[in-house]
Structure formats: structure tokens, C-alpha cells
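Q: My labmate handed me this sequence with no annotations at all. I'd like to see what the chain might look like in three dimensions before we decide whether it's worth expressing. Could you predict it?
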Amino acid sequence: MSAPHDPIARELYDEIARWPIYDPHSHIDPQRPAARDLDEVLSYHYYTELAHSAGMPAAQVAPDLPPRRRVRNLAEHLATLDNTVQYSWLVEIAQTFHGHEGDRIDPKRIEALYEAADHTRDGPAWDQKVWDLTNLEAVFLTNEFDDPLTGWDTSRYVPCLRTDDLVLKLVEPGTVTRLRTATNVDVGDNKSLRLALAALFEFFVERGARACAISLPPDFRPHPATPTRSSTPVRRALRGMDLRGDEVEEVRSAVFWMLAEFCHEFRLPFDLMIGPLRNVYPAGVAGGRDLFDRRVSLHDYRALFNHFADVTFPVSTLSPDAGAELVAYGWIFPNVVPMGHWWYSNVPTFIAADLRARLEAVPRTKLVGYYSDAYKLEFVLPKFNMYRRVLAETLAESAIRARQWTIERALELAQSVLLENPRRLFARESPGPNGAA
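A: Here is what I predict for the chain of 437 residues:
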């Protein structure tokens, strides 16, 4: 990502780009964090889904094809993507980590790039090199609830308890079996389920977890679950019995509310990623089948935010036009923190609009600027550089020119957004976003 042309924005960007990166949400595998070959880069769903949208048959990137063949196939379609910001990430990766020259990646040059990106023999040494070139301070993971959490430095690769399956799939026998195995609790009712969830939180916190997280569909409606109302559906779910639709929703609400209670008890932020509809396009490539529903509203979460006033909720919304509502909730609720720019909202035009509103309307201590959502370390730097550029341009225009701030004051705000706030909000014993312990 090139630096801004505007001289003030460029001065801001050049300084911001020197700072370390604190990445509070990713899908990095800490056992194999960096890509070992170009196929692991190009298999990122952005490239496969965009190429498929532009006419590439999904079979050309099928998992059973040899990696080099998939790369060659996708390279034939990269020219159709060269207007996108995702293409610019790819070029920056090729230039920064693999010595690629120029701003195009085409079929004629793909073989040389494939060879340059081959690090199958380098292993952890390559992981370290990418970490150093990126100037990473910490990157948060996405850990399934039965992850053993062993084999890596948890101060660098920070565990995060991901709870989608517990809430959305507890009605499936396989999830119940996994929960029993992970906790050694013979879950069969509300009481034993609470014991199992407590064991999970204890296990994760002991191993350095600093957040709990979940991705929720737009039709999810959290509400307090009373033992009387939820006991029968929860018992039936844990015993593998068939449930009606309303019973499924009651189980989901009961588990979700328990998780929020444990976030309160263990002083963990509860990251809410709200909005994806799964498998909207079944014929799409893997990872390219989900969309969002514009009807989602944070109004459905008002009871949650009010009841758990001392739990910090970093919130991401998938729909690009949901930004104004998130700003308003961050404006009013002390425990609601606008966090990052997620998925379909993660393009500069949408980021710029949301960022300007957040900077102008939400207290500076409550803004968590960005996270990579990356699956491989190589993507952290180009994604953050994209955000850094938008941040620099926004501060140059709306702070320095419009309100006559100094460069130093604008940089102080940028440092709060990118480093100070995430460090503080995701430190378990630190004060909350409003400064209260």
C-alpha cells in the first residue's frame, strides 16, 4: 500500500507505519503461522471468490488439485481483480516478502513468484522473518473451545475462546461429545453445562486467553434465559433429542447468556461479530458463500449491554451500512466498543466513512482501530497498511485541516486507536473502556 500523496497525510502515515502492530483478531494457526508457499496465500477466500465471481470455474481451485496447478489457474484470472484493494494486498506481500518487482502479477511471472515464495524447508525461521518484517507485537487467535492450547508462545500468539459452536451447535451431538471430552464434565442439564463452561474459562484463562469471541447470525436475539424456561430444551439438546425451532433458540440464548456471565466473572471482553448469513451462495468457492442481512440491528442486544454493564463488548458489524448504529451505541453505552472493519466493510471507502464518524463521535479511549482477520501472517502488514493510510488521510482532513490540530496531537489519537486502547482493553486486569476498574 503506497503512502498518501497529501503531504500532511504522508507525514502521519510515515510515522504510524513505524509503530508495531497489535492485532486483536485473526485466524492464524500458531503452529504454522506464515504461508509455506504461494498457494497458501492465493487460497485466501478473497482471491478465490473474486476470481470465481469474475468467471473462473470453482473447480479450478478445488482442494484436491496440486497446489501449483491451483496457483496457475488462479493467475489466469488475476488481471480481472487488479482494480481491487485485495489485489494490492497481494502485490504488497509479493514485494515485501518475496522480492517481487513491479505492481502486476500475471501468468508469465507466476512461476518465478511461486519459486520465490516456496518456504516449505524454512519452517519456523520463515515464521520469524515474517513476524519481524511485519513488526508484530501480538496477534490474537481464534481457538475452538476444545483446543489444547499447547505448543506456542501465548504472549505473542494470544489465545481467544471462540464460542460459535457452543452457542449455535450445542444441539448437535458432536458438539456435546467434544464438550464432554474437553472438560471431563458429563453434561446433561443446565447445572452440569454451567460447570463445563466454567471449566473451559478456567482452562483458557490459565493459558493466557484475553478474550471470548463469537460470530452471530443476523436473526440471533439474545435474552436472559430463566432456568425454568431453558431447563427442558437444554436437557433435551445435551441428550441428543430432537428439538422444535423455538427450543433450539432457547438453547442458544441460554448458552450465550451463560458465556456473558462467565466473561463477567473472569473479566474477559466478549467480542461480538454480528451479521453473517451462512451458505447464501452454495455454488461458491470455499469461504465465498456467506453474505450479510441489512436488517440486523444492535437494538436486539440492548438487554445484553444493559445487564452486563461491567463486561466490555468490542463489536463488529458485517453490513457496511450498520456503521452509524454502532457509532451511536458506542456513544451511549460505556461498555460497547466499536472494533475494526470487518469482511465486506473492510475496503477503504467504507473504512473511511466509518472511521471519520467514530473519530468525531466516540470517546478516544473506546476505539479499537483495526484487526487483520488474517489466516496467514503475510496478510497482517498489507491490511494494516491499508488502514494506516485511511487513518492518516482521515486525521489530516478532519483533525488537522478542519480543527487545526497539530501533527503531534493527531499522532497521539492514532496511537490510542492502534496501540494503547487494544493493549488496555485486552489486558485482563486493566480498567474498562471508561476508565473504571
